[in-house]
Write the structure tokens for this entry.
Amino acid sequence: MEVSQTLLTIQTPLPPPKETIPPSQVWACLTQDQKRCLLQTIVLVCQELTAIALHIQPKREATDE
């Protein structure tokens, strides 16, 4: 799996907002680049979790009864 160069670029963190943004409004406050980066990160995390889940599936034991 290749990681996009965009995800590897370290951006200068923004100072914390003076007001708290409710979780339901966070998406609206992001720039287009931040939205794209967040979605790419979510996809990569989901792919990793899926790969781990498929790799760790318990082996089903055959029972001869």
The mean pLDDT is 78. DSSP finds three helices and no strands in the chain.
